[in-house]
Design a protein that fits this description.
The protein is an alpha+beta fold. It has helices at residues 12-21, 23-27, 85-100, 121-128, 142-151, 194-204, and strands at residues 42-43, 54-57, 62-64, 72-78, 107-113, 136-139, 156-158, 169-171, 175-178, 184-188. The strands form two sheets. It has an eight-stranded mixed beta sheet, with helices on both faces. Strands 7-8 form a two-stranded antiparallel ribbon. The longest helix has 16 residues, at 85-100.
Length: 205
Amino acid sequence: MTLSHRPFLISGIVIAVLALGATAWILGSRLTQEKTPSGEGMVSVPTDLSGPFDLVDQRGRAVTQADFKGEKVLLYFGYTFCPDICPTSLQVIATALDDLGPAGTRVRPLFITLDPERDRAEQLADYVGLFHERMVGLTGTQKQTDAVARDFRVYFTLRKDVDPIEYPVDHSSYIYLMDEAWNLTLVFRHDVSPEIIAAALREQL
């Protein structure tokens, strides 16, 4: 898949370094000393690292976490103008679901924007469709998306000082696995492979 039409706003190397450097800030206060990594590509976190939301999907419909009751959710936070880390992570999610075969229909891929000013419903509809037919994109007001990001301890900064229009967004890059009752069960690092996600899902499905 080619995303060359999207502006290259910041180098992938810089974003990766920022994401790694933000780890302690994002999750450090929530990790307990007795917890250790639960597996390759994963981190262990308290299960209360989540929260409710009230947003709008790519079709303009009001959506809350209750709309995903009964489904497992692979949740990712990013923005549609992201040059590399977001599309890479979303492609990993899509590949993991495809690897699951029919069981993948029991998992919902969910993308929440950190940049709702530019990522309105129409923009999200075009974007999430590039990755997977089951992927849902969510947006809202900046206050609404900020609240969800805060509940999941997502680090991000809108870099309007770089460019007020085509600004990059520095952000952490984790994939959150929610169970059927919207409880957090696993967090995958940005370097996780589709095979690891698929294997973790098979154990829970």
